[in-house]
Amino acid sequence: MTALRDETDDADIGDLHEVVDPVPGAGAPHLPQQPDLVQLLTPEGERMEHPDYPLDVSDEELRGFYRDMTLVRRWDAEATALQRQGELGIWASLLGQEAAQLGAGRALRDSDTAFPTYREHGVAWARGVDPLHVMSLFRGVDNGGWDPVERGFNLYTIVIGAQCLHATGYAMGVQRDGDGSAVLAFLGDGATSQGEVNEAMVFAASFDAPVVFFCQNNQYAISVPLERQSKVPLYRRAAGFGFPGVRVDGNDVLAVLAVTRAALQAAREGQGPTFIEAFTYRMGAHTTSDDPTRYRLAGEVEEWKLRDPIARLKAYLSRSGLADAAFFEDVEAEADRLAARIRSGTVEMPDPRPTAMFDTVYAEQTPPLAAQRAQFEAYQASFEGGEHA
Amino acid sequence: MSAELLEAPATTETLTIGKALNLGLRRAMEDDPKVVLLGEDIGRLGGVFRITDGLQKDFGEARVVDTPLAEAGILGTAVGLAMRGYRPVVEIQFDGFVFPAFNQIVTQVAKMHARSRGLVPMPMVIRIPFGGGIGAVEHHSESPEAYFAHTPGLKVVAVSNPVDAYWGIQQAIACPDPVVFLEPKRRYWDKAPVDTSATPGPLFGSRVVRGGDDVTVLAYGPMVKTALQAAEAAETEGRSLEVVDLRTISPLDLEPVYDSVRRTGRCVVVHEAPVTLGLGAEIAARVTETCFHSLEAPVLRVGGYDVPYPPSKLEEDYLPDLDRVLDAVDRAMGF
Ligand SMILES: Cc1ncc(C[n+]2csc(CCOP(=O)(O)OP(=O)(O)O)c2C)c(N)n1
Ligand SMILES: [Mg+2]
To answer: Where is the Dehydrogenase E1 component domain (chain A) (predicted)?
Structure first.
């Protein structure tokens, strides 16, 4: 580790000191199950090879990942701040899970479809969803403003695990259509306990559905640690359903990319599902309503800081000369602009039209509901001009 | 009176609904070692609303169980525990998350006593924070009471105040039948004095909480406060509303309601749940059947619209409020 630091020529990297000094992952305790963990970029920012997961990634893509993760992290910080200021009802932070989400999101092709939980803002970003369309959900304006079909990105699902069955069914449709696309279902470690998630895996296996289950094991389901959900590493559950399970370093964007690409490719080729366990950590609270000091120790969070997904890529990019100070500055400036756009776009977001709640309940509006809507409008109108008539 | 009695410590404390539930659970656990709490995040965290705060610390992990994240699992294992002689008290984190457990509740919990010819009772409490008004995202503001009230074998109650919260949870736990215990989440922080040595009234009874002559207004859970506010506002306009806190949804206790409606001749039922086939429909039918000749106006219902609970920016438009109750009162008076 110190050798790495010595090799770095301070003069060359100018003000990038923080990138490699201290070395991000130096002293990070090793992750459990090391032999099983697919890693292509160590916490120290060293590139590794893995026999099963050769990675073909351009320099441009590598810089792109840095940009993606930095922008998404800034969005996340801005959203947390906006919630604190009363501009959002709640926010579910992705802090610490950027690599898992961007690696998985970028492994998708345009024609693929993803089924997120409520925390996949990084995947939303990768799918080209406007952050404001996510903010509108957390502001209480709608249930997500994007077009799920156009984006290949389902609406967020809050009922834990339900989307895994939808993804599987969607994949069964894809399989019938034979268009060579694949489906990516997101879930958390807690979700693996839900009956519906297990049913999804049974169906996926039984029909060789082209679906990949991407589980972000961020170690907690709100306050409940992983051990309450599973006595075995989660990726080993897959074997019981009859398909492969892989554990990947979820803070290593390259490994996540490689593993997810491979799994999606296998799905496309008719080899059926894969379960990916992205081993990561929820750096923040469960949501802005949560107080994690009640159930976990600060030391644990400190340990995981050393495995930060962005710092390790930054170290790699700068050390290998793939990016210079100007690049990092540009990304910072872009992040500032994004944050400003998210802030103004959120606070200026118009409230929904009250009658909207009646309008899309059914594909064919029913006479009773139309009548109720009319009554509602008349009632609301009775308040206009002050005194309730 | 003996000196001892005079010096007895005060037993009246001002409590929030949340704290009253916490103390009620604590007392039930002290009284009966068979009481076991099950739920997501109820142990170390004390529940997302902190209703079980401190209970795991004091009663241990075997009696306050942080379960895996699976509601069918929670309810299904609660059935087994109940068969084994335990009294499971289940916390469902939010109303919208009871549905993965719906199968267990309606096909197993509700029917066990009947299908075993009374041999296997199901003394179980299913606590559900319910209703809206907290600015939450989807599935955190539902009012699912009608599903449960529609299911024979379940008892369903909704508390509206700290006194009923404190006693009601203990009575529900002592009840030999499964009780769906609905907690008005947006009122968790409402306070009132609770006399913890009083003798509580029955759990399955409704109660007149404000006397009046012109219109009978019925509510339960979070809407009781709204009904009382409406009654206060109506008074300033010279209208006198009688407010009944139904308290029990299944079985219904409508005798006090009939008595009231026979005097007022007018009845308005208020709940957050959608009006269509909600509790108001059942109550309107019964009041009409029983008090037909006393009625001056049809029984009117104020409830949620027949739409999915809307995004929080629209919940004030969706939820019945003081104005909508008064509007119904006006219409009832206009007949
Ligand atoms: C069916 C259901 N039960 C309970 C909840 C409440 N809840 C929201 S998030 C959460 C924990 C989820 O943990 P995990 O699957 O690990 O995902 P993470 O939040 O860590 O991303 C719970 C219990 C819910 N949303 N849905
Ligand atoms: Mg988790």
So the answer is: 67-336
